[in-house]
Amino acid sequence: MELVPVAPTAIAPTERFTGRVYVSPLHSGESPSSLVSALVHFTPGARTNWHSHPVGQTLHCTQGSGVVVTRDGAVIAMRPGDTVHTPAGEEHWHGALPDSLMSHLALVEHLNGESATWLEPVSDAEYTTATSQAFV
């Protein structure tokens, strides 16, 4: 057992996110573990690009309000305490509502050294459509 030192929070890369997003790394598994976890903080209106995960992803909302959206247009609204799982290979995005900060724990596993396939940014129209459906 060991107490893991706190890793510094970093600004998320702009080529994978729209708006201001901060990532606080929590754990990066060493073999045989492949678990990677982080606390991700989205400012109002901030979001990920479209992406998928080879082994899926679990998100647990800790603060604020946000959405998780799939290519087929399904929208799941998240509030603190909500957990959303996206299965392996499902293209999706997630982010904060326009008027709320949102933080979530992100849990993924590496497969052959990869944890995500990053795709194009979410357009403003896609964002507006999805967030207008949240909590309706």
What does this structure look like?
The protein has 136 residues and is mostly beta strands. Helices cover 7% and strands 44% of the residues. The chain has one domain: Jelly Rolls. The strands form four sheets. A six-stranded antiparallel sheet has the order 1-3-4-12-7-10, with no helix packed on it. Strands 9-8-11 form a three-stranded antiparallel sheet, with helices on one face. The longest helix has 10 residues. The radius of gyration is 14 Å and the shape is globular.
Structural class: mainly beta
What is the first-to-last residue Cα distance?
45 Å
Percent of residues in beta strands? 35-45%
The best one-word shape is globular
Q: What is the highest CATH level, the class?
A: Mainly Beta
The CATH topology name reads Jelly Rolls
Measured on Cα atoms, how large is the radius of gyration?
Answer: 14 Å
The count of domains is 1
Strand tally is 13
The CATH architecture category equals Sandwich
Largest beta-sheet details: 6 strands, antiparallel
What fraction, in percent, of the residue positions are helical? under 10%
Strand order of the largest sheet: 1-3-4-12-7-10
Average pLDDT level: 95
- Which parts are unreliable, with pLDDT below 50 for 5 consecutive residues or more? none
CATH superfamily (homologous) name: Jelly Rolls
Q: If helices are DSSP runs of H or I spanning 4 or more residues, what is the number of helices?
A: 1
